[in-house]
Amino acid sequence: MSHVTNYTIFLTVMNTMDGPDDENHLPPIMQRINARLPERQKFDNLDRNAGGYKNMECGVFGIGGNYLPFDVVRAAILPEIATMDHDGFLLVVLGQHDSAFSTYTIAQLQAETEGRW
């Protein structure tokens, strides 16, 4: 059995330009987030698969995490984005049995960590 939760991160292009991409076309910020996640539960670059003749104007990274709790993902993300421009980040979450998306800004992730959300 599985229990999949989909996590999608949207970053402005400026927030993905902090160094060279790796072999999977992940910018350093996403490489660092992935390093904090369990083995075989890593974000992948989705905007590279969008097709067309133009690059997307944002970075889009997703993971279908099997038994990957929100707290683990939040803990992997927050240290990397805490000083980022708050308007340049969005996390969208959809659990296997959810009927609606949940969205989180940096401020909301920080508030939830501190028990204010």
Structure description:
With 117 residues, the protein is an alpha+beta fold. It has three helices and five strands, in the order E-H-E-E-H-E-E-H. A five-stranded antiparallel beta sheet has the order 2-3-1-4-5. A hairpin with a 6-residue loop joins strand 4 and strand 5. The longest helix is centred in the middle third of the chain and has 12 residues, at 70-81. The chain is globular. 21% of the residues are buried. The model has no long low-confidence stretch (mean pLDDT 86).
Compact overview of the structure:
By secondary structure, this protein is of the alpha+beta class.
What's the topology here?
Blueprint: E1 4-12, H1 28-35, E2 44-45, E3 58-66, H2 70-81, E4 89-95, E5 102-104, H3 106-113
Antiparallel strand pairs: 1-3, 1-4, 2-3, 4-5
Rg over CA atoms, rounded to whole Å, is 14 Å
- Number of distinct helices: 3
Gross geometry: globular
Major sheet attributes: 5 strands, antiparallel
What keyword list fits this structure?
117 residues; alpha+beta; 3 helices; globular
